[in-house]
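From: lab user (bench 3)
To: helpdesk
Subject: output format question, protein + adenosine-5'-diphosphate

Hello, I'm new to running complex predictions and I'm not sure whether the block I got back is the full result or only part of it. Here's what I submitted:
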Amino acid sequence: MSEFRGLIMDFPLTLHHFLERAGKYFPKKEIVTRTRTGVHRYTYGDYYRRVHQLAHALKKIGVEPGDRVGTLAWNTYRHLEIYFAAPCYGAVLHTLNLRLPLDQLTYIINHAEDKVVFVDASLLQLLERIKDHLHSVRLFVVMNDVGEYQTSLSPVVDYEDLLASVPQEPYPWPELSEWAAAGMCYTSGTTGNPKGVVYSHRAIFLHSFAVAMAGGIGVNERDVVLPIVPMFHANAWGLPFAAVMVGAKIVNPGPFLQPRDLCQLIQDERVTMTGAVPTIWIGIYNLLKQEKFDLSSLRLVVVGGSAMPRQLIEAFEKEYGIYFLHAWGMTETTPLGTMAIPKSYMDGWPDEQRYEVRAKQGIPAVGVEIRAVDAEGKEIPWDGKTMGELQVRGPWVTSGYYNDPRTAEAFMDGWFKTGDVVTIDPEGYIQIVDRVKDLVKSGGEWISSVDLENAIMVHPKVLEAAVIAAPHPKWQERPLAVVVPKPEYKDSITKEEIIEFLAGRFAKWWLPDDVVFVEEIPKTSVGKFDKKVLRDRFKDYTLPTAV
Ligand code: ADP
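Helpdesk reply: Thanks, we reran it on our side. This is the complete output you should expect:
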């Protein structure tokens, strides 16, 4: 074999290739950003020049190869500039989640040892409140998105002043290994402190091909791409990288994420593809019932982050002609893992069955491998019923958390343990039924808290419901339903009617042992039910069946 080695070029898969290609072949294409004063527009040509200038600027402010460059910013053209300038320069783009509690934000900046932080002026106060606890940051670079600003941060420099002070010629990019770190992002930490995930150039490069692949998301040059999912959350699902790779027009929403703003932007800029979590689409659906917008330019919407209700996929398609692609991923998987792409022969299936497939989380993207195992570590059958923990591996799946001992428990024989519990149907489509830590483990059997709470939320008197495991002397755990009634039913709703409502739908042993009514379900920074807080609150709760 050895005489054949070296007969293909050793060409590193780094982000320089995407940037240089975009600057060379698509300089006339547009990048649009919604701002407080209107709409900012420039071309890839302008973008390319500014990314090179920003690299000069990173050098000027003393950023060294491998240093972490933090960003605390909305989806804007400046954020997109750092997205390429930092990794191409050899530094590590570290996106900071602006919705995190301040103690976690502090933890993340310190843990990653960010050397500089680029911050939108509209978000300055977040950093001002924690500045005395930040140990590594040597400089704050302010991106003015408000007009006038003042800050107690120090030392600071203005982004535009910095760019104006550096050479205009192209920056001589260093030669980087494709294995060099390009970016990092911390998980939002539903258990304990957030964990750092590091993305190599190679991982992002290959992931971008998967995002651009026809038959799936298929981002291409003709697209007008609107990343609604924040650039601080799992690389905005890789959309900015893929869009620059193919030279697609990019539309950035800035901080304007209300349904009306988004619909207006889609209509004005003739957006063809976008991505956002289900809650955004629930808001948009409700708005479209009251106001008219022309969203006919949309060819595809990627939705994920939590389960997209089947009814909504169907309603959007039938009422507005908008096609949804349901996808699953994690910060740890860069993030694209699986997509519910129906197979061609499913076109002839009845609606009921087709939408059932479309509402699942799907089959893996090319490059990603998946399996699911039961409590004994044995692979589960593809019967659509048996539950197992989903495990993944692939060229853009993390192989360890950054400086974190929790890495040890996150892997099994080279597979990453996702913590998600799934079934796999005979066609290979996964369906997420729960998270491992949220499952109710009743006498060795698993009960899906998600299935129960979704069923309860269909009850006409219920606003929200979460199901958690409560300790039980005989069964170890039994389900406890925590329910928020609609205000008008606050005094009339009963435990019995909830249980009766579920009785026809689930096996008897799945039914909650108790129902408690509360004012509100606690939520995480990204709007998911915070079951950790809820479990804490009910940890000493005695079920009526436990006495
Ligand atoms: P965090 O783990 O901090 O919530 P992530 O954004 O990495 O942040 O979330 C990944 C998790 O989100 C997955 O492990 C899964 O539980 C959930 N998730 C992602 N996409 C979907 C989806 N389409 N349906 C259901 N759950 C999803």
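A quick orientation on your result: Residues 187-188, 190, 234, 304-307, 326, 328-331, 361, 418, 420, 432, 435 surround adenosine-5'-diphosphate (CB under 6 Å). Let us know if anything else is unclear.
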